[in-house]
Amino acid sequence: MVEYDIKKGCAKNIEGDLLEKMMKEVFGNCAKDGDVLVSSYGALKRIEVKQISSTVLHVSTESGDQKDDAMILDTKRKLNIFVEKATGFDAKARMKRAQQKAKKGEL
Asked: What's the mean per-residue pLDDT of the chain?
């Protein structure tokens, strides 16, 4: 499970049913499993998303048996699109934040 920071002010974009709608928009499907939203797309047979707080989003993925490079790249792109929409941080900003946390020993 990967923990992503949510940009200040972006939590309102995923409150209530908005996170579920966003998953349906990006991945084409979404179901609720308790307090976890579950989807699948391309090379990922399971994508689990749970908003922990207004500042933290957990995303867990499980790969399928797909070995097609084009599908893997498309899947990674879609996952990045989803995480950017949900957190407000692009891949570069997420990497920078993770590096800063690692330096502080928070990871």
From this structure: 94
